[in-house]
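Re: folding output
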Amino acid sequence: MHRGIALGDGRVLHNTPFRGEHICSEAEFRAGKRMYVHNHDGELRQRTLRSARTGDGARGYNLLTNNCEHTVSRHTHGRAESPQLRSWVVGTGLAAAAFAVTRHPAAAAAAYVFGRKLSARLSR
């Protein structure tokens, strides 16, 4: 799921592979899909707007270190994190280990699912 910060004036701050962190219209962000909005305090919106207007901290896209989730969490919590990426890495790691030990695809698939769930539970 793609993430961004609704700025409250019909624009969204988000991060994409070809443009990096930038502001676009809600219509462009949604690209015809449903948009879910979580409300945050006005201070967050003002801080994000100031940063976006001045270009402070605008970063390029990197799947592992600066994807859309990193951008949103950096603006909302002060630290860049990507729970989706973390759960994918943990699940894939456990799947690879299970396959290396058992050489059975079903064991690898089960380990992948277990790793994703474990990562989600630990990050709460």
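--- second protein (sequence, then structure) ---
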Amino acid sequence: MKRIVLIQPLYQNEKLDRNVRTVFPNGLGYLAAYVPDNWDVRILDEQIQPIDFDMAVDVAGISTTTLTATRAYEIGDEFRKRGKTVFMGGVHATVLPDEAAEHADAICLGDGELVIADMLRDYERGCLKKTYRNTPDHIAGLKHPRRDLFAGRYTFMPVSTSRGCPFNCSFCAINRFYEGKYRKRPVDDVIEEFKALPPGHDLVFVTDGNMYGYLPEDVSRFREICARLAEERRKGNLAFKHFTCYGSINALDDDEALDLARQAGCIAILVGFESINPSSLKEMGKSLNLKYGVETYRKLVAKAKRHKLLVVGEMLVGNDADDMDTLRRTEAFIDDIGFDILRLQIVQPLPGTRLFEKLQAEDRLLLKNFPEDWNKLRDSFLVGVHFRLKQLNAKELQGWVKRVGLAFYRPDRIVRRVWSNYRTSGSVRLALVTMLLNWKSRKSYANLEIE
């Protein structure tokens, strides 16, 4: 029997402490479910276990993001030196296939479930093609991921209910990866996967770019999923206690959805507030945030808290329209808004985004030596300045992010936040996870190096 190993490369910036033991590599779990039965398959997450390059495998399948791209290339090169065949996929390989192809024998563009069998059959026949493209339309009847192949203990168990996003923010590559399509799994499929989750994992992370959506049918589907989960919970058919998900700002304005979400076990929603500067929101393509208006942010966060839901607020600074006055007002906003977790960083030019292409066309990118320069994004993802700013000084902006991040994660504020979380959720484990994430975030901001 031939063997394939599916690898999630190590994110090598230990100072930022991101993604380590947080979430199972769910994409590889789904992919493993579609490996033909005549192949032995294993999953190796380099975040928690080292790679033995002399392991007995025929094919190494390597997932890529921009932050792990250079490590993925190193891994691919090492296996190829030993005569192994390398498949490469993921977001980075999809948006930059020619670059990735220098380190792999075959590239998968987009999701890999429906092409992995073809790739392995072509390998067996000795007619492997250089590029394979998955159809972006399949989503119904998705096999459950091979969770039995995951090793180690993670904080969250992941579930996917949709792929893509109904929006097209300038700084995000999701839209490009999924060819502009927002695909939603049938509700029955979603409920069955939630019911199939193994015991021993209290916390679920819904990995969708946006679980709530925008169109009326998206919202109805979200409400139906939550209502069905609440029903299954009452019947005792769910092994987990809580889940978190991404949602757009409109989710915080839907009392019915928030109530159903809480009944279903949702405890936190991650929301891209992004900026309090309307000009920056327009620049980023955040039309929904502009529609609501930044003056509604506080009201929406308060509404979520009335429904006993935690809010993870994402904020980006360094946009062309941002100036020192924007930073002063943003600091006051963050101090007052009541986020439970803050994700504050300088906007980063990732390949496959409209932002990257704009800056490249304007010759403002400071990243030009690829693939080596992807390490600069990896090493300073929160506070790096990788393009020429228009109205801000790079060092002043970096110092501001570090100072505001540390102020938000001041020890006394963390303690108050964790206590409030416990009162909201009634869950000691969730309060401890919140405390862990808060302290990890404090560590990340404390370790930021100002260039």
